[in-house]
Design goal:
Elements (H helix, E strand, L loop, with lengths): L1 H8 L5 H8 L4 H7 L18 H27 L4 H26 L5 H7 L5 H6 L2 H12 L5 H9 L13 H45 L1
Helix pairs in contact: 1-3, 8-9
C-alpha cells in the first residue's frame, strides 16, 4: 500500500494510473490520490525545536554520570594507600613465594600439578625453533619443560648456561655403592630366574620324550 501511495502522490502521475482512476476502478486508490503530495507538504517537528531538549536529555545525563565516575577515579588515584592494604600486599607476596617453594618441592617429589602440566606445554616461537638444529631444539625444550636439576636434565641445563650448581647432579660415594649393590642384586635375581626357567623347560622336554618311548614300546 505504501508503494501505491507514493505512485499516487507522484507529480506528474503516470498515464496508466490516471486512466485507471478515471475509469472509476478502485475507490480506495482514488481516495489516496486526493491526499496532498509530498512536494511542499508540512511535517510535524518531532526531533527538533521544542522536542530537541527531550531527545538530548538521556545522552547528557549519561555523559554526566561518566564524568562523575572519572572524577571519582581521579580522587581515588590521588588518595594515599591505606596502611592495612600495604600490609596485605606484602603478606600476599611473601605467601606467593612460599607457595612457589612448596610447589617446586612437590614437583621434585614426583607430583604432577597444574603448573607441571603447564610447563610441559611451554615452547619457543617458530622463528626461533627454525634457527636451531634438532639437537639444540630438543635440549632447549627439555630444559624449559623440566623442573629437575640433577642427572641428564642438570647436565643439559648447565650446558645451556642455566644457573645449576655443579654438585647438584653429583652423587656421594655411599649412594653410588648402594646403587651398585642394588644393581648387582637385581642382576643375580634375574639370572637365577632365567636359569630356573631353563631347567624347568629342559625337564619337561626330557619327560615328554620318555613318555613317548614307553608308549611306542607298549
Amino acid at each position: 500500500m505504501g508503494a501505491v501511495s507514493r505512485l499516487l502522490r507522484a507529480s506528474p502521475s503516470p498515464i496508466w494510473l490516471d486512466a485507471f482512476i478515471k475509469q472509476g476502478m478502485g475507490t480506495n486508490i482514488y481516495a489516496l490520490r486526493s491526499q496532498p503530495r509530498i512536494k511542499g507538504a508540512q511535517f510535524a517537528h518531532v526531533f527538533s525545536d521544542l522536542h530537541l531538549t527531550e531527545w538530548l536529555a538521556p545522552l547528557e545525563s549519561h555523559l554526566e554520570e561518566l564524568q562523575a565516575a572519572f572524577q571519582r577515579d581521579a580522587e581515588r588515584a590521588r588518595r594515599p594507600t591505606p596502611p592495612n592494604l600495604i600490609y596485605q600486599l606484602k603478606a600476599a607476596r611473601r605467601e606467593k613465594a612460599a607457595n612457589k617453594m612448596r610447589e617446586r618441592e612437590r614437583e621434585a617429589r614426583g607430583e604432577v600439578l597444574s603448573a607441571t602440566r603447564h610447563r610441559s606445554r611451554l615452547g619457543f616461537p617458530a622463528s626461533v625453533l627454525a634457527r636451531w638444529t634438532p639437537e639444540a631444539r630438543k635440549a632447549n625444550l627439555l630444559a624449559r619443560r623440566s623442573v629437575g636439576l640433577v642427572g641428564y636434565v642438570g647436565q643439559v641445563k648447565r650446558k645451556l648456561g642455566y644457573n645449576v650448581p655443579s654438585e647438584e647432579d653429583q652423587e656421594d660415594k655411599a649412594t653410588r655403592e648402594a646403587l651398585d649393590n642394588l644393581t648387582e642384586t637385581i642382576r643375580k635375581t634375574n639370572q637365577s630366574r632365567r636359569d630356573s626357567g631353563a631347567r624347568t623347560m629342559q625337564t619337561g622336554k626330557d619327560g615328554g620324550q620318555g613318555l613317548r618311548v614307553v608308549t611306542a614300546a607298549a
